[in-house]
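Inverse folding, one chain.
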C-alpha cells in the first residue's frame, strides 16, 4: 500500500517543501498589505489565523514525519514572530499616549491614539480615551466620530464592557451637546 502524501499549506504562495518561510518573507507581505491600506490590526489577525492553521492537526495529518513537522513549526514561528513585531507598536502607542496624557501633552496623546484608531485596533483604550479628550475640549464632532469608529471596529465582546464609546444613549447625548454648542456660536 502506497504511503499517502499530504499537501503542505503554501502560506503567501511559498512551497514549504522547497523554501523555508522566514520572518522577512512574512514582514514583506505584511508591509505590502499595509501600504495597500489594510489596517495593521487586520494584518496581525491574518497572521495569527495562518499560524493557527499551520499548527492545527499537524500530528494527525503528517504523523511521525519529523521533517514536515519541523518545516511547519518553523513557518508557524516565522508567522508568530512577524505578528508580534507588527502588534507591539499598537500596544506601545497606547502606553505612550497614556504617559503623554499624564504629562499634560494632550495633542501628542491624541495623535498616538488616532494612529491606533486608523489601524482599527480592537482594544477599547484608544477609542475611550479619544472620546474623553475630545469631549473635554468640546470637540463633539470628533467624539462622535470616534464612537462610530468604535462601533465599527470593536468586537462584540469588547462592546459589551459598558463603554460609553459604544453606548447609543451616550452617542445621542454627544449629538445633542454638539447641536447646543453650534447654536451658541
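Residues assigned per position:
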Amino acid at each position: 500500500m502506497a504511503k499517502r502524501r499530504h499537501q503542505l499549506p503554501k502560506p503567501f504562495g511559498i512551497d514549504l517543501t522547497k523554501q523555508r518561510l522566514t520572518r522577512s518573507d512574512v514582514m514583506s507581505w505584511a508591509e505590502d498589505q499595509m501600504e495597500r491600506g489594510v489596517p495593521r490590526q487586520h494584518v496581525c489577525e491574518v497572521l495569527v489565523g495562518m499560524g493557527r492553521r499551520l499548527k492545527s492537526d499537524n500530528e494527525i495529518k503528517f504523523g511521525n514525519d519529523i521533517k514536515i513537522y519541523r518545516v511547519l513549526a518553523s513557518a508557524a514561528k516565522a508567522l508568530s514572530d512577524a505578528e508580534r513585531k507588527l502588534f507591539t507598536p499598537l500596544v506601545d502607542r497606547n502606553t505612550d499616549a497614556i504617559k503623554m496624557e499624564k504629562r499634560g501633552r494632550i495633542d501628542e496623546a491624541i495623535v498616538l491614539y488616532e494612529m491606533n484608531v486608523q489601524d482599527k485596533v480592537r482594544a477599547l483604550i484608544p477609542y475611550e480615551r479619544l472620546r474623553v479628550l475630545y469631549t473635554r475640549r468640546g470637540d463633539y464632532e470628533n467624539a462622535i466620530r470616534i464612537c462610530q469608529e468604535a462601533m465599527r471596529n470593536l468586537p462584540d465582546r469588547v462592546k459589551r464592557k459598558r463603554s460609553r464609546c459604544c453606548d447609543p444613549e451616550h452617542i445621542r447625548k454627544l449629538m445633542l451637546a454638539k447641536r447646543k454648542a453650534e447654536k451658541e456660536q
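The mean pLDDT is 85. DSSP finds nine helices and no strands in the chain.
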